[in-house]
Write a structure and sequence with these properties.
The complex is a heterodimer of chains A (112) and B (113). Chain A is an all-beta fold and 112 residues long. Chain A has strands at 4-7, 10-13, 18-25, 31-37, 44-50, 53-57, 64-70, 73-79, 87-94, 102-103, 107-111. The chains are: A mainly beta (112), B mainly beta (113).
Chain lengths: 112, 113
């Protein structure tokens, strides 16, 4: 375990479903991130939260909705996804933005 | 736009051999990271390189950074099967006022007995 815990590890959902991914860290970090890892693309930064405030939305479609209720928890709410959204979604945290990232194990999402 | 390019993308080598993975990036960087990822697993931090000429070694892996050439290398010495994994470099920099970690495509390394 890295100290960043993601649940669930695997998720299969239909295009009309609504689901949420959860990320939790108790490392005392103040910044949290969502990354998408597709089979044929480099890791893509999706969202950045710093002290619970969203500081970056990297042109992510609105069917992905992040939520950061506190510095330890980060959610990614999913609705009406497309098959091309199937990927490994990685959460990361750092003490502050741009320094010492710790990654979770990821959620493998399959959209059918 | 910051681009981070790794070379090669796939590498198959025999145990005992030496090889180097290259990471080129297109703009100035605050920090450069090397990560390892095993199939189905998370990213494991290997090295953080902070300044020009930095060299770090851990076991059979050695990473270096040339900020003038915008190039980092990951050198593998006397490879062993356990080093089979995908290796990513990532550049930490400021883009449009925001700190971002931009990854290369990854190098899938397979070490054969």
């Amino acid at each position: 375990e890295t100290g960043v815990t993601q649940t669930p590890r695997h998720l299969v959902m239909g295009m009309t479903n609504k689901k949420s991914l959860k990320c939790e860290q108790h490392l005392g970090h103040n910044a949290m991130y969502w990354y998408k890892q597709s089979a044929k693309k480099p890791l893509e930064l999706m969202f950045v939260y710093n002290f619970k405030e969203q500081t970056e939305n990297n042109s992510v479609p609105s069917r992905f909705s992040p939520e950061c209720p506190n510095s330890s928890h980060l959610f990614l709410h999913l609705h009406t996804l497309q098959p091309e959204d199937s990927a490994l979604y990685l959460c990361a945290s750092s003490r502050r933005t741009g320094y010492g990232y710790t990654f979770g194990s990821g959620t493998r999402l399959t959209v059918v | 736009e910051l681009k981070v390019e790794q070379n090669p993308l796939f590498l198959s080598m025999q145990e005992g051999k030496n090889y180097t993975i290259y990471c080129n990036y297109s703009t100035t960087s605050d920090r450069l990271y090397w990560y390892r990822q095993d199939p189905g697993k998370s990213l494991e931090s290997l090295f953080v390189l902070l300044s020009n000429g930095a060299v770090k070694q851990e076991g059979r892996l050695m990473a270096s950074l040339d900020t003038k050439a915008r190039l980092s290398t990951l050198h593998i010495t006397a490879a062993v099967h356990d080093l089979s994994a995908t290796y990513f470099c990532a550049v930490d920099t400021i883009i449009q006022g925001a700190q971002k970690l931009v990854f290369g495509q990854g190098t899938r390394l397979t070490i054969n007995p």
